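Inputs:
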Amino acid sequence: MDGAMHTDAKSRAETGTESGPRGPGCSLRHFACEQNLLSRPDGSASFIQGVAEKSREQLIRNTCEAVVLGALHPRTSITVVLQVISDAGSLLACCLNAACMALVDAGVPMRALFCGVTCALDSDGTLVLDPTAKQEKEARAVLTFALDSVERKLLMSTTKGLYSDAELQQCLAAAQAASQHVFRFYRESLQRRYSKS
Amino acid sequence: MLAPAMAEVAAESLAGGRARAARTVLNQVVLPGEELLLPEQEDAEGPGGGGERPLRLNAGVRSRVRVVCGPGLRRCGDRLLVTKCGRLRHKEPGSGSGGGVYWVDSQQKRYVPVKGDHVIGIVTAKSGDIFKVDVGGSEPASLSYLAFEGATKRNRPNVQVGDLIYGQFVVANKDMEPEMVCIDSCGRANGMGVIGHDGLLFKVTLGLIRKLLAPDCEIIQEVGKLYPLEIVFGMNGRIWVKAKTIQQTLILANILEACEHMTTDQRKQIFSRLAES
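Outputs:
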């Protein structure tokens, strides 16, 4: 089976920022990633978090927890704020990449970098990496993986739809190959940042 | 169909994961997750010394040099694990044994309190005998009212909420609340204490502060020649500056903030243009 990878022509952007922890006097919260969708990219606003957002938040939190060296900052909350500017598909993978870059930019000590890759399997078994929203809707199965940078190990996986054992292994292998491009992009952008000084 | 592409990619990824010697990566950008090998100790007693080499109990394991692990690096086994992104730096040992210090020079804005650092804090609360001072870390630092020069129980210092304080940390670790004082070990202020009411406080990255406080920094000498000014640098990324007029103060603040992204030539151009006007 041939694999196709879409890395460009995506109008998707996200900004990730990190805000400081709270001081004493208020009850400290557990290490949690909150997604308070006050404003959505299509212009609507909502104060109620849906179940889908909460589950996405939990997935990102678990990935970050596995990688951040929390022992160096006891009794401290690390907040990652992700604002969706436009959503053109593969939103969770995009959130994971933005969260990783935000943590690196803030100088939070981590034991590895991580990236997110989404695979879509359509009805005749074609594997598409980084699918658009339309491809995700028409796909038979959508799989998202979070991989770490040291040995491309799997940190988190979430899947939706119908797929066989062999297809899962194929998607994972394709995602591991694709993660290389993401890590190379991380390295290039960080080198460009440090080249100015 | 994926197999040959995968094999190449697998080989490349394995190559990326292998640890490299710290010496080969000096002054290059390193990313979290990379492992570095420490330099091995050179065998002082070479062969040919009359065959008097002592027998090692663990033959095959060469002892390594004692190296100090600075910010951004952690020990894992007998290797160094990089935990922050930045340039790897090394300092040779001044005297005696040891392999010197390795650290990662990272650009970050968030400050983590370190013992002995001089910082600028903002007083946020006064509760009984201590002031709570915001230093930009995860907890406000506590400052006792007796930690000023010439302060006694009867003679309290004149510190209000909202004042700027320049002090140093006496206790700063990850397990305890940071404590700061405005006197040195002899009881003298030595420049520390409440900073005057005028002037401007602004925030820059920690890397810029370290660059400006380096021994032969040209930027500070050039700025001094431009206008008469008072300036205080806090290691937590805060700079307080005061010149004769508000306009001069703002110009100085803008120059210092922009210094980070300018090359030496651009900076000299701007200074000469300002000196003329």
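Remarks. Residues 126 and 153 of chain B are 16 Å apart (CA to CA). The interface with chain A takes residues 1-2, 5-6, 9, 12-13, 16-17, 29, 31-33, 72, 74, 81, 83-87, 106-110, 112, 138-140, 174-175, 177, 207, 260-261 of chain B (CB under 8 Å).
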